[in-house]
Structures are given as structure tokens and as C-alpha cells.
Design goal:
heterodimer, A: alpha/beta, four-stranded antiparallel sheet, 9 helices, about 40% helix, globular, B: MetI-like fold, binds adenosine-5'-triphosphate, binds magnesium ion
Chain lengths: ~240, ~220
């Protein structure tokens, strides 16, 4: 297993919001997390990148467990897992190009010429070849989200974590962002996707996990989970969300 | 209207008045610089300090923002000697202006502290930024950007406020204008020139702050 999560529990200030979550990802696989609001999907991703400390369980990369109490270990994980947030979270005081280049330059200390060329290429790939010098407040939501994707890719992560990256966008901007992700999928990027875009989830994922109240309730290939859910709660959720 | 302008009698005093303008600028500049430090410390105390210290800052801020600057300087100049502390008029004015500025700048900077976006810090953390890198690349630029316009405006207000020093006999621009007036009573001419110099000072300050802000943080401070 490339990334495995075993019996993960976590919470905020004493309130448990994740209870005994387990699943795993193979290299090149795309797994999606779906479930109602507040079910803990974001918290799973935030645990993986060390923004929320796990309270119990084991998270392992390439078979070796990550010690989230060690700064060095967390830094190691952040080298390999990159997250894209719902609200893009771009650095407002930097141009698109600087947003993408800053971590490789300042955190990694990679050579400038190489980093800049790479950042430009990444922006070109996400369709922003003409927006290198634009600041976030000069870009549309969809464009900002694509900058955020480029920024996440700049550190050459092994896994991309996407947290509802289209849900803050106007409908006509969703396609351009999803197309960017389709491109990455076609190139074999390993991804853990939280999304409410069910058609998209169905199209790209090899497996879907349904979460409710902090637990993984049901797991299966998308066709199974969407068309023939085994549990009552998954059935409820799927019928509700597909009705839209 | 039979007042004849006699500019000739005052033009000779222009260098003397300009020297006063420099003193005004100096008072504003040092007062602002000291006020920024005091304000930053107080704002940090209000954000992260223990309760007793926060109370103390509150008392300081409400005292200095709810009494006139003139009264504050009177207190320093005439009141403190009773406590055995003697300040000359320039020192009393500078301390008064600085403490007054400190109180206002505490409030301005505190607003900046509150507005740093948690989400950008999350992004920085997951990209591997160290604590110091977060401060340097995310927090400070954000503070400068949000605080720039209100700070620049306060600085302009302070430049004009230095004229209060004349009351204590400090020979800055207004003080010197009063001196010249006492010699030749060409009040209209003298005070027009002084006013012109104040306008020049504030416009020069606004314009340079404007261009600097635009260049450094892409923001527009108020020019007028
Ligand atoms: N910073 C926080 N402090 C306290 N509680 C939190 C915090 N963030 C999330 N929670 C709580 O944790 C639970 C799980 O939240 P989480 O954000 O992981 O859900 P989610 O499945 O991502 O929901 P959504 O679809 O609305 O994004 C919720 O009950 C939420 O109220
Ligand atoms: Mg969420």
C-alpha cells in the first residue's frame, strides 16, 4: 500500500469528529470521499497533512508509519502530500507565478532558473499561460483555483489531496477546474478527492468511500456505491444528491 | 479693503520658516516612529498578553484617545515637574505626540493582527513553510498592506498636529511664523506662507506615501 490509514481518530478541542477511519491508496489510484456536510471529509485530509493532529490510529506512507508529533516527520509528509483547499487559500500579496514558485524557492531552496521555468510551465498546463503576473484578486475563482493546483504541484508531490475544490465556484467555472484534474488523472497522478460533483467522482475514481458522522460507512467502486448502495445511509445520501 | 500686501517684508524669512517646517517634520517623524513601536507592543499585548497587561493597555489607549493632545502635553510639561520629572518644551511635545500616536497606532495595528487570514497560514504550513517564513512571507506583507493606508493617513494628521508645539515655545513652523509676525505684523503674508508650507509638507508626504504604497504593496493610500 502506498498510503494507508488505519483506525484514524481525531477531533477539535476534545470533540471527536473522526472515529476509526481506515482506507488506503495505491500509487496512481484516485479515491474519492463523499458524505454529508460535517461528516469529517475535510478533517481526514487535514490530518494527513498535519493540520489536525491524529488522536489514535496509524497513517503510513510506503509502509512506514508517520509520527505526527515530530516536526521533521510532518515536514517529510508535506513534501509528498499536497493539498488544495476549497477556498484556494492563495497568498494574496503574491502574483500567480510567485504563489507557485515560493515554496520550491524558499522552502526547498531549489535553483531559481529551474523553479521559475517549472512554475511557468505549470501555469501553462493549467491554462493560465497569460496570467503569470496577475494577483489573486485580479483572477476569477476558477483561475485562482487553478493557480492553487499549480502551486500544489510545484513541490512535485506523490499524492494530491483535493478538498471540494469546485464547490466555491460558479457553475460555469467548474468545468475548467475539473478538466485540469482530468488531465492530471490521465497522467497517473495519485489523488484523494473530496467532491460533491458526483458525475466527476464517478468518472475518475477507482473507489469511493462514503463517510457519515466521522466514520467510513461504505466503500466500493463508484458504479456499485452509486447504483446499488448496500447501507441505508449511503442510499439516502446518494438519492438525495443525485436528485439535484 | 485697503490692506496692501507687502510680500517683500516676509520673503526674507522664508528660509527661517522652512527651517521650522523641517522641525515640524522631525517631530512628526520621530513621534510616529516611537508611536509605531509603542503601538506594536501594545497591540501584541492586547492580542496575546495576560489579562492584567491587556487592562493596562486598554486604560492607556482610552486615556490618550479620549483627551486632547494639548491637555496631555500640558500635563507632561507643567504637571510632571511636580513629580520631579523635568522635560524641556521640545521633549514634552515629542513625548506627548509619541504617546498620543502610540494609543491610536495600537488600535490601528490591532485591527491588522486580527485580520491575518488563517487560511493562508494553513496553505503556508502545508507547503512546508517554517514559522519564520510564515511571518516573513505571509503575515508581515499582509499587515503592511492592510495597515498601510490608515497608518499613512495618521502620519499626515500628525504632521499638521505638530503645530501644537508652538504653544510651548518650540520653534517649529507655526512657532517661527509667530516670531516673524511679532517683528513686522505682516500676518496675512506670513501665515499664507506657513499654510503653503504645511500644504507642501502634507502633499509631499501623501504623494510619496502613495507612490511607495502603490509600488511596494499595490495599494492606494489617500492623497487628499
Ligand atoms: N476548526 C474546527 N473547530 C471545531 N470543530 C470543527 C472544526 N472544523 C470542523 N469541525 C467540526 O468537525 C466536524 C467535521 O468537519 P469537516 O469539516 O471535516 O466536515 P466535512 O465532511 O468536510 O464537511 P463539509 O462537506 O461541510 O466540508 C464537523 O462537525 C465540524 O463542525
Ligand atoms: Mg469540508
Amino acid at each position: 500500500m502506498f498510503l494507508s490509514i488505519d483506525g484514524l481518530s481525531a477531533g477539535y478541542g476534545g470533540t471527536r469528529v473522526l472515529e476509526d477511519v481506515s482506507f488506503s491508496l495505491e500509487r496512481g489510484e484516485i479515491v474519492s470521499l463523499i458524505g454529508p456536510s460535517g461528516s469529517g471529509k475535510s478533517t481526514v485530509l487535514r490530518c494527513l497533512v498535519g493540520l489536525v493532529p491524529p488522536e489514535a490510529g496509524r497513517i503510513a506512507l510506503d509502509g512506514s508509519a508517520v509520527d505526527y508529533t515530530s516536526r521533521a516527520a510532518v515536514r517529510g509528509v508535506r513534501d509528498r502530500l499536497a493539498i488544495v483547499f476549497q477556498q484556494y487559500n492563495l497568498f494574496q500579496n503574491m502574483t500567480a507565478l510567485d504563489n507557485v514558485a515560493i515554496a520550491p524557492l524558499k522552502v526547498k531552496g531549489w535553483p531559481k532558473a529551474e523553479v521559475m521555468a517549472d512554475a511557468k510551465r505549470l501555469l501553462d498546463t493549467v491554462g493560465l499561460g497569460d496570467k503569470h503576473g496577475a494577483y489573486p484578486d485580479q483572477l476569477s475563482g476558477g483561475q485562482q483555483q487553478r493557480v492553487a493546483i499549480a502551486r500544489a504541484l510545484a513541490l512535485k508531490p506523490d499524492v494530491l489531496l483535493l478538498d471540494e475544490i469546485t464547490s466555491a465556484l460558479d457553475p460555469e467555472l467548474v468545468t475548467e477546474v475539473l478538466d485540469t484534474i482530468r488531465g492530471l488523472a490521465a497522467n497517473g497522478m495519485t489523488m484523494l478527492v473530496v467532491s460533491h460533483e458526483m458525475a466527476f467522482v464517478r468518472e475518475v475514481s477507482s473507489r469511493v468511500l462514503f463517510m457519515d458522522r466521522g466514520r467510513v460507512i461504505e466503500t466500493g467502486p463508484p458504479a456499485e456505491l452509486f447504483d446499488a448502495p448496500r447501507t441505508e445511509r449511503a442510499r439516502d445520501f446518494v438519492t438525495k444528491i443525485l436528485r439535484h | 479693503m485697503n490692506y496692501t500686501f507687502q510680500w517683500g517684508q516676509v520673503t526674507g524669512h522664508i528660509p527661517y520658516l522652512a527651517g521650522g517646517a523641517m522641525i515640524a517634520l522631525q517631530l512628526a517623524f520621530f513621534g510616529f516612529a516611537i508611536g509605531m513601536v509603542v503601538g506594536a507592543l501594545c497591540a501584541a499585548t492586547k492580542a496575546y498578553g495576560p489579562k492584567a497587561a491587556r487592562r493596562l493597555v486598554d486604560a492607556y489607549v482610552s486615556f490618550f484617545t479620549n483627551t486632547p493632545l494639548l491637555v496631555q502635553i500640558f500635563f507632561l510639561y507643567y504637571g510632571l515637574p511636580d513629580a520631579g520629572i523635568f522635560l524641556d518644551s521640545y521633549q514634552a511635545v515629542l513625548v506627548g505626540i509619541s504617546l498620543n500616536a502610540g494609543a491610536y497606532l495600537t488600535e490601528i495595528q490591532r485591527a491588522g493582527f486580527m485580520s491575518v487570514r488563517r487560511t493562508e497560514l494553513d496553505a503556508a504550513a502545508t507547503l512546508g513553510f517554517s514559522r519564520l517564513q510564515m511571518i516573513r512571507y505571509v503575515v508581515v506583507p499582509h499587515l503592511l498592506k492592510t495597515l498601510y493606508a490608515p497608518l499613512a493617513n495618521h502620519y499626515i494628521v500628525m504632521v499638521l498636529g505638530t503645530s501644537i508645539a508652538a504653544i510651548f515655545g518650540v520653534e517649529e513652523l507655526t512657532g517661527r511664523a509667530l516670531n516673524v509676525n511679532a517683528i513686522n505684523f505682516r500676518s496675512f503674508e506670513i501665515f499664507s506662507i506657513a499654510a503653503g508650507m504645511y500644504i507642501t509638507l502634507t502633499i509631499a508626504a501623501s504623494a510619496s506615501l502613495y507612490w511607495f504604497g502603490l509600488y511596494a504593496f499595490r495599494i492606494k493610500a489617500k492623497v487628499f
